Backbone:
């Protein structure tokens, strides 16, 4: 049964996905069936993670299917949630902390493992904001990728042998596998973070694949009547398996292969000695065996599971969500612009008519009663609550403002306090405090908080304008709230102008005022139509993202807005031009009307009072509307600020958790440091011999330093390319080389002197480390034991 190197699953601590993801769903989607569906999906995702990571998995296809489904779901869900803003911390342990790499036999090889390690090296590591653990360092995953590639090639060798394929094919496949194992061995020589079993297994596999290639190539030589070559290759194969049996027998079982080679060699020698008498050539003179690679590193393509179904299939990616948010903002701006221009036109019309005392001047020809239009305005003010309703709204605004300011101040204070602590620890630990500075991380939140502060300041200014306007009109508004008899008594009387009743100028003015009323009603209808326009840009944004890989939101939104609101914009402009022309005509007619009226001081006082009452009514309506809008604004802003506060609280909590873990790592690291300074052993106390000239200089031995155990050496053979020299030992005493693949050299099992690490140690903290993206790291789980 073949022995394969497998990588243990990385272990992670438990993470609650439900709370942060549910909070986002609740804030991003309104209550209803859609929100409920996404909340259920969050629960299922949490269960899926627990199934994949929360319990030991059997070495079976069903376990692999769980991991593949989980990875596919992560790939599908990552673009749909703002994970950096959710501040989820995923902690993974070094896979090589404990345990062995050996996982038994593998019956089926999937084209995944080598590509998965290559994916980690090329894609995942770039997403980390801290030094990776040693098991996923670029050098380690590159080596593991080569190991998996070698083992995949060996699987094809086993398959070809079992299917009794032609010896020429098997020889090429095995020779290529030996080449792959040799490359893997070279990459592993100086990586002490890998378990000690790896290096001898790779050396043994290199020799075994070479021996297998020689065995099948010898059969091919026999078929071609090259009996001396057959014996030479079998002798070479025999030496290879003898080396494996003597040095690596505790790691691999080479007995079956050895017996097969010995039987073939015995038979070949017997036939050659008694029948053929063919000369046995030197191994170095043999033709090189060809190579045939049937494996390659394949990229990760999702979905990996054939049964995968996205739990959040209906949820659009974050890029689409953000584009929708910007598009909705543009739509709101367009609606507000059109509606605002309509309302400004109405206010302008009311102001002009109030300044001309219309229509009250046409109704007040008697000079001693309250005009009907004034009575209607008075009743409208009373029905809406009069002064009391306005004063209550004005009284509530400061409380709402103060509540919002307190929420904003508390949110920013949380960031300030955590950043201060982070800076203090950074000063204390210097370069060891190797996490992103809080000041850099909080820049987007502080910018957002600054925007909120600016909005509040502008709101305070708007509140002041409303109060000033109320103060200037409150006396006339109070008069409108009085009974009709008191209102009549407050309006000065004037001489009657009954001679104007039925005159042409009066009729013209009344007709023009009627036309103005029709224009106002048209504006109300147009405003309702503008507000009722609805459209969904989701499909167009999804199509653009699929086709172009990006969304040009501004261009797409502008085109859609022009299509939806183009006709409304034209109608608004026509309405405004019609009112402008008609107001000019009203002012001209009013001049004629004023010239015909009897003018005296009493008439002027009465007309002035009626103008003030009409203006007070219009101001009351506008002030009430402004105050209600202000109240709604503060209440809506409170909800937004509470979400901002939660966002600040979440990231501060995550930073505190990360801070505590890093402090724990630093304390453990400091505890492992030697308590006394290291120093070199004097030369006269050293028993080691002086290295030979030209050899490597040993690293100085230091006190309190534990040297790693020596690795078992691989066999050493003479390359084929080497030429024979006089006095060379007989071929039977010299182990022949492994065809075209020189075997790897392992460190000697018993070095004559202390050896320091032949490569710079990897900088970073072992053990736990936190990552920003669980999709990125979970790919490591798919290296199937």
Residues:
């Amino acid at each position: 049964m073949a022995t394969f190197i497998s990588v243990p699953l990385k272990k992670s601590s438990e993470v609650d996905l439900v709370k942060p993801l549910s909070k986002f769903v609740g804030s991003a989607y309104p209550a209803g069936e859609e929100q409920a569906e996404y909340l259920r999906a969050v629960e299922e995702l949490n269960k899926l993670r627990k199934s994949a990571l929360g319990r030991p998995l059997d070495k079976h296809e069903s376990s692999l299917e769980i991991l593949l489904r989980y990875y596919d779901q992560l790939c599908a869900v990552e673009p749909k949630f703002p994970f950096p803003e959710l501040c989820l911390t995923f902690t993974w342990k070094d896979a090589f902390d404990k345990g062995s790499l050996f996982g038994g036999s593998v019956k089926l090889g999937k084209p995944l493992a080598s590509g998965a390690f290559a994916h980690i090296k090329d894609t995942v590591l770039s997403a980390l904001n801290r030094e990776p653990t040693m098991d996923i360092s670029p050098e380690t995953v590159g080596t593991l990728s080569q190991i998996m590639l070698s083992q995949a090639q060996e699987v094809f060798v086993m398959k070809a042998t079992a299917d009794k394929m032609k010896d020429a094919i098997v020889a090429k496949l095995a020779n290529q596998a030996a080449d792959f194992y040799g490359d893997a061995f070279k990459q592993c020589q100086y990586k002490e973070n890998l378990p000690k079993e790896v290096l001898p297994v790779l050396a043994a596999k290199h020799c075994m694949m070479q021996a297998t290639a020689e065995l099948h190539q010898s059969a091919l030589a026999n078929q071609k009547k090259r009996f001396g070559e057959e014996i030479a290759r079998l002798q070479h194969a025999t030496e290879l398996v003898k080396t494996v049996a003597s040095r690596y027998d505790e790691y691999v079982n080479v007995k079956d292969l050895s017996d097969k080679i010995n039987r073939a060699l015995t038979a070949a020698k017997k036939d050659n000695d008694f029948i053929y008498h063919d000369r046995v050539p030197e191994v170095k003179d043999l033709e090189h065996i060809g190579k045939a690679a049937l494996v390659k590193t394949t990229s990760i393509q999702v979905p990996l599971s054939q049964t995968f179904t996205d739990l959040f299939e209906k949820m659009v990616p974050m890029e689409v969500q953000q584009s929708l948010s910007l598009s909705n903002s543009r739509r709101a701006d367009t609606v507000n612009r059109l509606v605002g221009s309509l309302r400004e036109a109405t206010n302008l019309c009311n102001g002009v008519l109030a300044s001309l005392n219309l229509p009250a001047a046409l109704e007040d020809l008697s000079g001693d009663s309250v005009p009907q239009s004034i009575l209607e305005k008075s009743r409208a003010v009373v029905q809406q609550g009069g002064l009391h309703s306005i004063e209550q709204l004005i009284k509530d605004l400061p409380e709402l403002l103060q509540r919002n300011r307190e929420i904003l101040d508390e949110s920013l204070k949380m960031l300030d306090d955590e950043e201060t602590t982070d800076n203090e620890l950074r000063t204390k630990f210097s370069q060891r405090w190797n996490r992103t500075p809080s000041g850099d991380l909080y820049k987007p939140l502080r910018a957002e908080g600054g925007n909120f502060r600016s909005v509040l300041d502008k709101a305070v200014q708007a509140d002041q304008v409303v109060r000033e306007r109320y103060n200037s009109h409150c006396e006339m508004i109070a008069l409108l709230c009085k009974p009709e008899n008191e209102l009549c008594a407050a309006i000065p009387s004037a001489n009657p102008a009954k001679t104007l009743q039925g005159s042409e100028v009066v009729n013209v003015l009344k007709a023009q005022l009627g036309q103005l009323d029709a224009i106002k009603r048209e504006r109300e209808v147009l405003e309702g139509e503008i507000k009722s326009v609805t459209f969904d840009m989701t499909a167009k944004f999804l199509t653009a993202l699929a086709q172009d890989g990006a969304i040009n939101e501004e261009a797409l939104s502008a085109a859609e807005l022009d299509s939806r609101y183009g006709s409304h914009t034209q109608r608004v402009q026509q309405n405004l031009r019609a009112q402008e022309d008609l107001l000019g005509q009203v002012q001209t007619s009013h001049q004629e009307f004023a010239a015909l009226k009897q003018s005296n001081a009493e008439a002027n006082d009465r007309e002035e009072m009626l103008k003030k009452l009409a203006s007070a009514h219009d101001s009351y309506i506008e002030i009430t509307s402004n105050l209600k809008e202000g109240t709604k604004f503060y209440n809506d802003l409170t909800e937004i600020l509470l979400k901002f506060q939660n966002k600040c609280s979440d990231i501060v909590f995550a930073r505190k958790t990360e801070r505590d873990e890093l402090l724990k790592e630093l304390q453990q690291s400091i505890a492992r440091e030697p308590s006394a300074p290291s120093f070199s052993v004097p030369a006269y106390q050293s028993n080691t011999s002086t290295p030979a000239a030209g050899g490597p200089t040993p690293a100085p031995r230091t006190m309190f330093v534990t040297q790693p155990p020596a690795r078992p050496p691989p066999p050493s053979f003479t390359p084929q390319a080497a030429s024979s020299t006089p006095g060379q030992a007989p071929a039977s005493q010299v182990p022949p080389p492994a065809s075209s693949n020189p075997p790897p050299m392992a460190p000697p099992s018993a070095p004559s002197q202390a050896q320091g690490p032949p490569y710079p140690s990897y900088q970073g903290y072992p053990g736990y480390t936190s990552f920003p993206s669980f999709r990125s790291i979970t790919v490591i789980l798919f290296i199937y034991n």
